[in-house]
Amino acid sequence: MNASFQAGIKACLPTVLGYLGIGFSAGIVGRAAGLSPLEIGLMSLLIYAGAAQFIITSLLLLNSPFSAIILTTFIVNSRHLLMSMTLAPRVESRHQLDRFGIGALLTDESFAVAMNTSLKQRIDANFMHGLNLTAYLSWIGSTVLGALVGSWFPDPERFGLDFALTAMFIGLLYLQFESERSRIALNGLLLVFVFLLLYISMRYLSPELAVLFATMIAASIGVVISRWKSV
Amino acid sequence: MEIRLELFVLFAACGLVTLIPRILPFLLMHGLTLPRLLTDWLSFIPICLLSALFFQNLLIARSGEFPTLSLLHLAAAIPTVLVAVSSKSLSYTVITGVLSMALLRLFL
């Protein structure tokens, strides 16, 4: 096995626990909404996006029209455009098919792990494939497992599994802070801006659009402040 | 066990609208030299996006009103942040988060 591919698998391992926790809950919730384990596996295989799958499941339960479900999925997952734009220039890849594969399996978590690694070393297509495939298989496996044994755990929230996602964001955010020590004060300030922007925009926008809005405006503020400081 | 055809179609459509924003930059931005302003802006995306996703998890949306802070989630986040900072380990952070939330739900 290619060394870089192995390094990708290794880089993914710390996040696997998070995928297992969230995927397991997603499987349980899907089962409770009347989806079969095969359908839940198919959803993970074709969509592969944690937050979106929870939302799709709840919309199915509400008998929402398919057009509304598809539109919501698009909005929830449009943040991947920002992540792909940020990561794409940092990955060395020669083949179009490699780039397709890397983009197709990008998640919040694999994005954060890849960005973190790219600040320390160069990353190539094989690294990304190792990272992404490990995450993809963990996700599909854990959602199907949750669906199969879900009836034994009628209430996954009681076990705190729903918080696995939040905890993972905390860990990934902290690691990103660590790897950008040179501008730690500015990043801290941006954190405050993100919170305020998110708080205000959640009054007017859906939570998913508010996340996009707060991210884009806060990143712009970051650019302005960093330019102004360096003048 | 079966797969309903209409769900297959729905999931495929949802998969497609998820795939497009994921792959477009990888297919289109390859080999381009991006303007400095854009690369600067993109360098702030990880911190801003991850913090926005974290904060969104702490806030409870209410339509037409400002969101409220979930004290339960905030309480579970505190030990989780402490373990993230002291251990620098994602696994320990996730375990702490899940255990904290489970304990809070047990006692509250």
Description:
The complex is a heterodimer of chains A (231) and B (108). Chain A has helices at 3-32, 37-46, 50-61, 66-77, 79-87, 96-104, 108-118, 125-149, 163-179, 184-201, 207-230; strands at residues 91-92, 123-124. Chain A is mainly α. Chain A has 2 domains: 3-179, no CATH class; 182-231. Chain A has a two-stranded parallel sheet. The longest helix of chain A is centred in the N-terminal third of the chain and has 30 residues, at 3-32. By secondary structure, chain B is mostly helical. Chain B has a domain at 34-107. Helices cover 75% and strands 8% of the residues of chain B. In chain B, strand 1 (59-62) and strand 2 form a beta hairpin. In chain B, helix 4 runs antiparallel to helix 5 (90-107). The longest helix of chain B has 24 residues, at 5-28. Chain B is extended and about 50 Å long. Chain B starts with a helix and ends with a helix. Classes of the chains: A mainly alpha (231), B mainly alpha (108). The interface between A and B is large, with 96 and 80 residues.
